[in-house]
What does this fold into?
Amino acid sequence: MKIITQPLATFGRYLQLMAKVFSRPERLRMYLKQYTREMQKLGVDSIGIVLMISFFIGAVICIQMKMNIQSPWMPRFSTGYTTREILLLEFSSSVMCLILSGKVGSNIASEIGTMRVTQQIDALEIMGVNSASYLILPKIMGLVTMIPVLVVFSMVAGFGGAYGICLTGILSVEDLTFGLQHSFTEWFVWMSIIKSFFFAFIIASVSSFYGYTVEGGSVEVGKASTDSVVHCSMLILFADIFLTQLLS
It folds into this structure.
């Protein structure tokens, strides 16, 4: 029975926290300042790792497609076509958000969790500040704003990695370009961007929940950080299945 009631209780606490988070801000200017800071910390600071991972994954996908799919019975542009579909449909949105849940999610959970165990959140409550809204809402809004931008950067970097493979002579630029342009569906790009909004909300809100509700000391903060990454990854995968069926 505990296996059923405990997740329901946790979900109920999550909904209660989100109700506090999305209450009307007391001082809009203060929230805007926090919002821009979170965009910088959670989004802009992640551009480097997104570009690096996407570039090499795009290159690896292109090599694998060329070596394992290309044959005399298939058109030469199939490598570029398959690489494009993988990058647009899954990697740049779902897989990249899974990677960011480890970097960004653990950072959010540990930051808020440390504030909880050092009683900084209690101090905000004593001063009459809605600590949940003040700490969590800018993170959610900042990540929801920046994750779609990172997804677009990931797509571009992935294609850049595929073109980088052409320098080795494995594949010609003309064949890759034709494959990338063949039967291009613009909706696939928008579908990845739409999914990234939901993934960003999951990462920010779930990580903030585990950090905000932590009890104990530094050991519990580390456990909350790990739990946030695990649950964010699971929820992203579940959401990916649902959203893919809904948007396809």
Observations:
- The chain has a mean pLDDT of 85.
- DSSP finds nine helices and no strands in the chain.
- The longest helix spans residues 78-117.
- The two ends are 38 Å apart (CA to CA).
